[in-house]
Specification:
about 55% helix, 12 helices, mainly alpha, about 260 residues, 2 domains, three-stranded antiparallel β-sheet, 3 strands, single chain
């Protein structure tokens, strides 16, 4: 029997399959969201581990038969390690309840015409869950005076580096400082473009590559920090490509180089 794939032009999406949803789910995983694989879950195969094509876009799969996934990965632990769980609306609501997300924060979602109009309800729920996980697991990196900015900054770094608890704390703080300066500048421009108040923060942050690139050329006040941010990300990618077990000296040199770069 020939498989029938999902048609994004004609079919109704069971949930968003866009990059924003996947990247925010990646942050949730890095922030410590627990997942027990079971039937009824959508997952993102970011590492191209599954050889079979998915009927859905962007290598998103639906767990219809758990034994079939165990056959592919070997066990559920490998599934958790190699896949990124994409909670549905109902699963996200249950997570909010389990993790103690304030009820008024969730109810505000249903009263926000802006969020509902954009169809971003699920992203908003993800962001509420992420805030709680960051407060719980990364308190050392969130200053009370800069709470919302720091939570957004930690979330951005989770996207770049995964679980930042595995890195030396002083290294992480140095990197976060550069990230914080860039994101603060980015938000200032975003507020101006969208006519928002000076203390406005988005429900979730998705960095527009075009706007970020423009900050390197057209905004003189932010050129230095933006260039530093881009170079730092290249250095982080190079560091993450090093096997710290087989190349410990090279890894430590990379850590030291980045820390020095962040303090320039």
């Amino acid at each position: 029997m020939t498989p029938v794939h999902f048609d994004p032009e004609m079919d109704l999406f069971p949930m968003p399959f866009d990059d924003h949803t996947c990247q925010l789910a990646r942050q949730l995983k890095a922030a410590g969201l627990k997942w027990r694989p079971h039937v009824g879950c959508f997952v993102w195969d970011r590492e191209n581990y599954i050889t079979q094509n998915s009927p859905f876009p962007n290598r998103i799969y639906f767990v219809l038969s758990l034994p079939r996934f165990i056959e592919i990965f070997g066990d559920t632990e490998k599934m958790v390690e190699n896949l990124i769980w994409l909670p549905t609306w109902h699963q996200a609501r249950m997570l909010c309840s389990q993790l103690g997300v304030p009820a008024n924060a969730v109810s505000n979602l249903l009263q926000s015409d802006d969020t509902l109009a954009k169809g971003e309800e699920l992203l908003y729920l993800y962001s509420l869950i992420l805030d709680v996980l960051i407060e719980k697991n990364f308190a050392a990196f969130v200053e009370q005076a800069n709470g919302q900015l720091d939570r957004i900054t930690v979330g951005a770094l989770l996207s770049a580096m995964g679980d930042i608890r595995v890195w030396p704390e002083q290294f992480t703080k140095a990197v976060l400082q550069v990230y914080r300066q860039f994101i603060e500048a980015y938000l200032n421009i975003l507020r101006q473009q969208e006519h928002k108040a000076p203390d406005w923060f988005p429900a979730y942050l998705s960095i527009d590559p075009e706007l970020a690139d423009g900050m390197r050329h057209f905004y003189s006040d932010y050129q230095h920090i933006t260039k530093q941010f881009f170079v730092l990300n290249r250095k982080i990618d190079q560091l993450m490509a090093i096997d710290r077990d087989s190349q410990p000296n090279l890894y430590q040199e990379g850590i030291k180089e980045i820390m020095q770069f962040c303090t320039q």
